Amino acid sequence: MAELPDHAIQTAVRLARAVAEGTSDASDRLEAHVAAYGFSYRIREDQEGPMLVCYPASWVVDGVLDHSAIDSLADAIERPLYPISPDSWAVVDAHNRAVAEAVATSYGNAHGDNAAAFAAYMSNHHARRVGVATPADVETFLTDYYPRNVWPGAKARTVVEESVTLTVRADGLQ
C-alpha cells in the first residue's frame, strides 16, 4: 500500500491552501505531488472550512471512487486547511485515540469501535478534543459522518449514541 509521509502531507496541505485560495497552477501541482506517492486528493468543505482528503489512487476507477477497492479507511488522510500547526493536530489526535482506547477497555468493543470513529471524526474534521464536542458536532457525526464513513457491526450501530456520550464523558477523566 502506498504511504504519504509526513513531509509530503505538509506540502500537500500548503498546496491545497493555495488551491482553496484560487492559485491557478496549484491544483496541477497538488495533483502531481500526491500522485508521486500513489494518491489522489479532493478538497471538501467542512463546517470549519476546507479539508484536504488524500486517498490511494487505487481507490479510483474511471474517475470515480470505487468503494469495493477500499481495504482500510486508515489508508486515507484528512487535514484541515485552516491554520493549525501539525504538532497541535497530532497532540489532539493522540489524546482522542487514548480516550477511545479507554472507552474500549471500560465498555467493550462495540462502544470502543464507535469511540474510535468519533475520535477520528473530531481529530480530522475539527482538530479538537472529543470532550469539547458541541451538540452540532455530535449531530453531524451521527447523521452524516457515521452513516457514510463507518461500517459498524450491528451491535455498534445500536449503541452509537450511548458510545458518543461515554466518549465525551471519558475525556473529562483523561
Describe, in plain words, how this protein is organized in 3D.
There is one protein chain. The longest helix has 22 residues. With 174 residues, this protein is α+β, with helices and mostly antiparallel strands. A hairpin with a 2-residue loop joins strand 3 and strand 4. The mean pLDDT is 86. The radius of gyration is 17 Å and the shape is globular. Strands 1-2-5 form a three-stranded antiparallel sheet, sandwiched between helices. It folds into two domains: 78 residues, no CATH class; 85 residues, no CATH class. It contains seven helices and five strands.
Characteristic key phrases:
174 residues; alpha+beta; three-stranded antiparallel sheet; two-stranded antiparallel ribbon; 2 domains; 7 helices
Topology:
Blueprint: H1 6-20, H2 26-35, E1 39-46, E2 49-56, E3 60-61, E4 64-65, E5 77-80, H3 86-107, H4 109-126, H5 135-149, H6 154-158, H7 160-171
Antiparallel strand pairs: 1-2, 2-5, 3-4
Helix pairs in contact: 1-2, 3-4, 3-7, 4-5, 4-7
Shape call: globular
Overall strand count: 5
Q: What number is the mean pLDDT?
A: 86
The largest sheet is:
3 strands, antiparallel
Please report the number of helical segments. 7
The computed structural class is alpha+beta
Radius of gyration: 17 Å
Distance between the termini: 34 Å
- Helical amount: 55-70%
The figure for the number of domains is: 2
Order of helices and strands: HHEEEEEHHHHH
Low-confidence stretches: none
- Strand order, main sheet: write it out: 1-2-5
Portion in strands: 5-15%
Summarize the structure.
The protein has 174 residues and is an alpha+beta fold. Helix content is 56%, strand content 14%.
